[in-house]
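Hey, weird one. I pasted the Putative competence-damage inducible protein sequence into the form twice and got a warning about non-standard characters only the second time. First submission, copied straight from the form history:
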Amino acid sequence: MRAEILSVGTELLLGDILNTNAQYISRELANLGINVYYQTVVGDNPERLKNAYNFALSRADIVITTGGLGPTKDDLTKEIAAEYFNKKLILDNKSLEEILTFFKKINREVSENNRKQAYFPEGCIILKNNNGTAPGCIIEENNKIAILLPGPPKEMVPMLNEGVIPYLKKFQDGTLISKVLRITGIGESSVDNLIGYIIDRQTNPTVAPYAKDNEVTLRLTAKANSEEDAYKLIVPVEKEIRDKLGDINVYGVENESVEEIVAKLLIENKLTIATAESCTGGLLAGKLINYPGVSSVFLEGVVTYSNIAKINRLKVKEDTLNKFGAVSSECAAEMAEGIAKAASTNIGVSTTGIAGPGGGTDEKPVGLVYAGIYINGVVKTKQLNLVGNRQKIRDRAVASTLDWLRRELIAYLNKDSN
């Protein structure tokens, strides 16, 4: 089946709100094997909205709208849909009761405008809103389906998951299963060179690559009569991909992040860690702290931005700074060892560099970053040559350092187990 997403709201066109709804819906439809070929954004204008319905339903089997279900006069998504399908709007008493209950709970009076949210095109399937006042609905007519959802993501996402996805599953021919592989340390072009032939020959399962900041993801999707049979189709393709890319580069699956993998390795092996950051200004520590339970191993994070701070807090030698500078492998090494000793941890991680936009030289350009890792007496450093604006360089420095830490931890633990 083909679907189109129609996002309604002048605020979207003006750029006041980021359209995360379309991204979320597209991803969920892909999981169901429903193709999305177009996404449209239209303002709160009845004539343009009517035209958008015409275009969308002329080229898609399903149109999913978000927004325009509110109480104000310019919330017209439902009204225009009823007009398009030549259906009357009829009061649904159950929906009205739920709206009245919602307002009573928040101790507010119900306006006449809110009552219009309880009117629906005759014969439609009403979708309950457990998180707001605007119920959604599904209209089926002449082999076309219009699914109307509220705009706020906190209302749209639960309604999609609880009401729409189960409804759409009845259109599935067989069972569709997806698995996402997350890859870092090698770029999109390298991935394509190594497994391009797998992508070219894809049938079932399909392999879809997506490039993201600092990583590449591969979505493997298989169709079969059961989940078990679908997973069986994925297994050999996943193995071939891992063999070609190197298992160390395929760092996780589904929604796993590099910091999650690192945190798990530290916790499972009872390895304590501390961080000392200069150019990244605490971003590295912040990534690790994202993982619940990391407090058992993450003991300390410091931002030693100035040379004085590096000397006083981390015991970086003045001679090192004078001879090599703060942006150097020598300084990164002493920072990593210094924080590990100061915090009495197994591991110390450091970053120091030039994030820009100024401050670079021919010898040490903007984007030059050094990272250091100390693990139980052994210190290593790594030079990173990054591009982008100040924030991009800092983010990429953190991503690269975390991935390097992951690889060093795996190597250390494998060596220790042998």
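That's the output from the first submission. The warning seems to come from a hidden character in my clipboard, not from the data itself. The mean pLDDT is 94.
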